[in-house]
Design goal:
Elements (H helix, E strand, L loop, with lengths): L17 H13 L5 E2 H7 L6 H13 L3 E6 L2 E6 L3 H15 L3 H10 L3 H12 L15
Antiparallel strand pairs: 1-3, 2-3
């Protein structure tokens, strides 16, 4: 049953799910060219979030090892611990590992790729992605 007071999608109650807030905070940090304070992060987010809410999300992300921080005045400035591509790849791998049917998940994923992304994936799998290819740690094993 749907409970509007407990709606984490943000559509009925106006509240956003924690994951949505974390994603927004991470996006703000990925888009910055230097570490940001909680106030600077808040200023880059849509809506009117409380400073303490942003600070709580930053603290949670730091505790999870997703952010690094450095002293900035009386507080901290935060930056992502890993680049956005690494973070996204880790999330994709985690989702795949928690599924019960890897083949079905991968099949559905590939079937829903755009033609351009499918061609890129084929090129990557063939090992012909050019200068950005760094190799996987388990290649050749």
């Amino acid at each position: 049953m749907h409970d509007p007071k407990n709606d984490e999608s943000g559509t009925t109650s106006g509240r956003r799910a924690r994951g949505e807030l974390e994603s927004g905070v991470l996006a703000a940090l990925y888009g910055a060219d230097q570490p940001l304070t909680a106030r600077e992060v808040r200023d880059r987010l849509p809506g009117d979030l409380a400073y303490t809410t942003v600070l709580t999300i930053l603290s949670r992300l730091y505790d999870k090892g997703m952010l690094v921080r450095q002293r900035a005045g009386r507080g901290y400035a935060y930056a992502p611990a890993r680049d956005e591509a690494t973070h996204t790849a880790e999330r994709m791998r985690s989702l795949l590992e928690h599924g019960t049917d890897r083949e079905a998940v991968l099949t559905r994923f590939v079937s829903e790729l755009s033609e351009k992304d499918e061609q890129l994936l084929q090129r990557l799998l063939a090992g012909h992605d050019g200068p950005h290819h760094t190799g996987r740690a388990d290649e050749g094993s």
